[in-house]
Amino acid sequence: MAELDANLDHIIPSSVLAPFWAKLVVGFVSLVCFARSYDGDFVFDDSEAIINNKDLRAETPLGDLWHHDFWGSRLSSNTSHKSYRPLTILTFRMNYYLSGGFYPMSFHVVNILLHGGISVLMVDVFSVLFGGLQYSSRGRRLNLAPRSSLLAALLFAAHPVHTECVAGVVGRADLLGALFFLLSFLGYCKAFRETGNKEGTHSTFWVLLSVLLGAVAMLCKEQGITVLGLNAVFDILVIGKLNVLEVVQKVLHKDKSLENLGALRNGGLLFRMTLLASGGAGVLYMRWKIMGTGPPAFTEVDNPASFADSMLVRAINYNYYYSLNAWLLLCPWWLCFDWSMGCIPLIKSAGDWRVIALAALWFCLIGLICQALCSEDSHKRRILTLGLGFLIIPFLPASNLFFRVGFVVAERALYLPSAGYCALLTFGLGALSKHAKKKKLIAAVVLGILFINVLRCMIRSGEWRNEEQLFRSALSVCPLNAKVHYNVGKNLADKGNQTAAIRYYREAVRLNPKYVHAMNNLGNILKERNELQEAEELLSLAVQIQPDFAAAWMNLGIVQNSLKRFEAAEQSYRTAIKHRRKYPDCYYNLGRLYADLNRHVDALNAWRNATVLKPEHSLAWNNMIILLDNTGNLAQAEAVGREALELIPNDHSLMFSLANVLGKSQKYKG
Q1: CA separation (Å) from 182 to 175, 211, 373, 454?
Q2: Residue 505's pLDDT band (cuts 50, 70, 90)
Q3: Domain range summary for the chain, segments of one domain joined by +
Q4: Rounded to two decimals, what is the model's pTM?
């Protein structure tokens, strides 16, 4: 759109408008924004998705990746999150292999480079949005809006809401999904390259490749499949030049010329829509078959609005969540790693002042949609339609409209929608500049926004470098979030500061009286401090709230054992094992209970079960050796000791226990 680009000539200098230099500037800005995170730790969800995920290790067959969820659990399991992203896990596995282990730097560097590549691709995407789809005689796509596309790409590259995706390693799913999403869109644009945009003509190869790339995007992150919807909107409204206002008017007036509308009688368009629809349906069907018939199970604390009894309350809160997402795009200053567990209290009545945010959101959206569909200016229609398409369509899987999601607000879900926001913002800045007399002031405002966003990205990237900074940064944003206090407490406990950890765990339980994980961890600390009565009360309450909480049952058993309530302890251990059959630590503690009761055979059997489930369980091996030694079974103790050292050859405690046995057997040379 030449007019829009001309309105931005005082903001974007002509010296950087060459495609190479424009992309170089965007790539450089994107790297500057998030470079601080390159040497960060694995934080928050990284532990479960990477460190504790067996799918990254060489001993796990590659074929298992196609049957496991993002966290390494079997998709058929009732506890599976059902997040199916095998291609993302494959890149984690490659990182692990090439770096020789769990070294976070290599994982972070890949994320930063991916964001840089996506930001560069955005220059091409925005050139289609602002300049249209025009090709030279040689079949090369022309960028007719270099200033607009560069400004929008810079706004995208430096948007602080992207920090979670870039600085958090698990955000790679969103980055890879976005990469193939954009490639699919650009591939669909190429379907019209050699046809000169002649009516009804296209390259079927590029349409099919676009569908394939959409499927690849979905195998990286579920929302990737929505690119097929965006391609359809692009084809109908931009390529087909369908004027919705004209169609509505003719329908209302029963105009017989309606059947002669080009877009409606375009055989090529119908064929492409059939390819997109059938491809999307086929991919979704395969995804559903792999996932299984049952949806993932989420709890009320994950998404409280979805559990509200009233449909009106659910609708109001969902729309309030949308307005919060819009606010994060507009003013990304208050960012938090987790928005669940009371961070955003439910709106329960129309008298809640927050309803104003809903009204403001829909006032803006309806105005933009009307302009996008009804404007007589075809350039304006294209920009607003595609801007809204990028804003809304990739967000639909996170909207709760089709299925319940496991979060209230997720900054990672805004990675792709932010592209639509940046396009709309650039269009608005161009329109403002057109009517403003002080154009230098507009230029200063735009440069100020970019500078502040870059600075905010750098600060936020620093907060994502380690868990202590990340968790503490959330205290001021979401002070009512029990999970924030829980994570701060857990981080303090890991560092040995039990007194401070207890304070945060207690606050987490106060904010969410059913927070069983906080109760379990608090009970553990109290157990170590010999405050056994309160520890038992907390752990008993935890298993009462969640009867299948195996870890809490085991910890309750340990406390009951310390209180000399041996029968209750045995029952707690057995209950834990019933709910988690492969639980070596529980078998170990059960063995200790039997040893205290002089039930030596039962103790040995329990410890043997622990070592079968976890061959490197040093404590279980050591206890077997010591018990056999103390009961005079030196030959058996020696055999167990040698078996253990074959599995754990450098364990000094095992060497010491075996040496004692060999000394008693007068085998001084081993």
Answers
A1: 11, 12, 24, 23
A2: very high
A3: 582-669
A4: 0.88
